[in-house]
């Protein structure tokens, strides 16, 4: 036991190490830990004062702490009876459950890169216990902590992101999803390590895809269906929080996923919500992105005539007709799971109507607004005050004497929505930082593109064409070949058999970058 404890505290060393040395030492350390039997790890007993976990710091002795946890959960992680088969100390109110949750929030993010499969086993166990006790909310905090600890930027979409969102939706804990949803997804996990910028797992990598991949054990490859479900659930979470602009962006991500000229079921669901959310976000029917497959968009429009009609009526500002349409299609909205969204349309129609009044009036009596909206006088002023407090109106209500007046501010530098110079500078700095981050992701994508077989073949073809042209000019012979004559993508299609498709060109990348802003 003394020798085991001495081994546990032998890594990491106090002094910093070069990446190569660190990689060698942690690999050797893991080999020694793997030689220790599960019986040795667990002989002190789970949940007792003498348990090894009580003597280790998860932030420092990350690897031995993880090995002890794995040794305890291994006998029950595949047990068919949950919760009956789970010992008391591993249940949500047990001592070791608390230690497991603490570990997922405090582990060393560098050491953990070497034990992706064990990290994943912990998450699977947490999910299984939470599901077994029918308490999905129990797993939300551990999952979120583990994901952000591994990848603070949250830019690589893993299978665990989707599991996390399912937990949030099942618990109706929509706000808990925001720390994950607010991160920019810039890539999907590759099959192998993509160590373009540095050769070791412990190195300071520009993007987390270098260590979050299928081979490292942290995640499976992500399918198109999983990508669509992640963004659909994310859009639904934003809808529940009434964050319409963010919801619209997430739902559009579902629509632009690659498809073989046919809309999937999730695309249809996303499209219908996207139409409604677009109306709530801007007061207008949203325009489909040019990135959406044209065959798919035809399917989407053909499958959603009632939603298209509803959106058109909303934009026409015909309140009685909108109310009739909402009522007539009540069962359809319920069946599609969109009844809540649909019933928001008449409410927000009033908001957009009031907002447009500033184009006609600089000031207007609240009583007149109440008549226009068909509201009782005692309800109009609180309603308008709510719109002002939510930032929908740049106005104030003056009620010093007589009938209260709604006064609009035409100058954006005045009124409750006015921003100081410091606020504008802060916004500019935030945008600049966001651009900087996005440019790093684009640069990484370019690097990956330059290593693909397709890119290399085209570069070789271009070089060959240049040499041929130079040779012809040197010999006094003029080339009659077009610039595309050496394009192996057309003349040598057999070279591309078994290869993946080329990503979009620079123009598409630039357009995507601007849309992300």
Automatic annotation (TrEMBL):
Superkingdom? Eukaryota
Record flagged with keyword Ion transport: no
GO CC entries? COP9 signalosome; cytoplasm
Q: Where are the transmembrane segments?
A: none
Ranges of Acidic residues composition bias in the record: 505-517
**One Pfam family matching this protein:** PCI
Which positions fall inside the PCI domain?
242-411
- Region annotation (Disordered) ranges: 495-517
Q: Does the keyword Transmembrane helix apply?
A: no
SUPFAM superfamilies from the UniProt entry: Winged helix' DNA-binding domain
GO BP field: ubiquitin-dependent protein catabolic process
Q: Where in the cell is it found?
A: Cytoplasm; Nucleus
InterPro entries with a match to the protein in the record = COP9_N (IPR055089), CSN3 (IPR050756), PCI_dom (IPR000717), WH_DNA-bd_sf (IPR036390)
Q: What family does the database annotate? A: Belongs to the CSN3 family.
* PANTHER family on file: 26S PROTEASOME NON-ATPASE REGULATORY SUBUNIT 3/COP9 SIGNALOSOME COMPLEX SUBUNIT 3 (PTHR10758), COP9 SIGNALOSOME COMPLEX SUBUNIT 3 (PTHR10758:SF1)
- Protein name as annotated: COP9 signalosome complex subunit 3
Species this protein is from:
Rhizodiscina lignyota
